[in-house]
Amino acid sequence: RAIASRIVVVPSTGSTNRDLIAQASEAPAQWPHLSVLITDDQTAGRGRLDRQWSAPAGTSLAISVLLRPDELPGSLPVGAFGWLPLIAGVAMKRAVTAAGARGAELKWPNDVLIEGRKVCGILAELLPDASAVVVGSGLNLTIGADELPVETATSLQLAGVEEPDPDAILAAYLDELRVLTYELANAQGNADGSGIRSLIERECATVGRDVRIELPGGRIERARATGLDEGGRLMVITDAGPAAVAAGDVTHLRY
Ligand code: ATP
């Protein structure tokens, strides 16, 4: 079973997302749908809002996957891109669970947590010509307690998976991601597009919880998260009433 069209592993690089965006823009024919670029030594990783993502060399995986909406069965309009980090989060949650991690949770909009700590962060970015999307994830495999980049982080090993097998996790992740992106694309052109939405709503541990939303400029809203809307935005109820928040409008979300 093909899990990817092309897999390139590099010993070290600044950012796999940045490289895949540049290379797929320059030579599109060489980077088909489901091309993957990986390293276990990413030296200048980024999170949302250009925040730093870092991990000691050899202790984690940076995995960037190229998705070409034209090659998916239905369609993937720009309005559906908000689903991609969530779908990747579901895929990663399933992959680490299959590897033996217990209690992995998807936190809206782009993290996988174990016991409240971040084991994986995800960043989806459009190519400059908007022809494709790169979905990047940083997965902490064997970072030790004394070398965590931030105190809110964890690794699979710290969470009890003694020897995480990168190949098995990668294969499971790519397999899940391939299936879920097909389902998402199918759902867009389908009157019953609610299937994938309710699946992710069920899988997303943020739904149903009280959240503290930090907005640009430092304003803080307290709300109850009630669901996800058709674009993957978080539906909340605040004192002022119902609202939908987009990932791009939130600086931090805390429970
Ligand atoms: P938040 O971290 O507030 O939940 P976020 O989920 O949107 O926000 P991102 O901006 O996507 O986070 O990721 C960057 C943040 O992740 C950094 O600011 C840092 O706190 C944290 N971080 C950096 N490297 C790692 C890592 N290897 N593991 C876990 N967390 C990390």
Automatic annotation (TrEMBL):
Q: Which Gene3D superfamilies match?
A: 2.30.30.100, Bira Bifunctional Protein, Domain 2
Give the first-level EC class, as a single word. Answer: ligase
GO MF terms listed in the record are: ligase activity
Q: Which UniProt keywords apply?
A: Biotin, Ligase
Q: Which SUPFAM superfamilies match?
A: Class II aaRS and biotin synthetases
Q: Where is the BPL/LPL catalytic domain?
A: 1-185
- A matching Pfam family: BPL_LplA_LipB
Q: What EC number(s) has UniProt assigned to this enzyme? A: 6.3.4.15
Query: Which InterPro entries does this entry report, sorted A to Z?
Result: aa-tRNA-synth_II/BPL/LPL, Biotin_CoA_COase_ligase, BPL_C, BPL_LPL_catalytic
Coiled coil location: none
Full protein name = biotin--[biotin carboxyl-carrier protein] ligase
Species of origin reads Gryllotalpicola daejeonensis
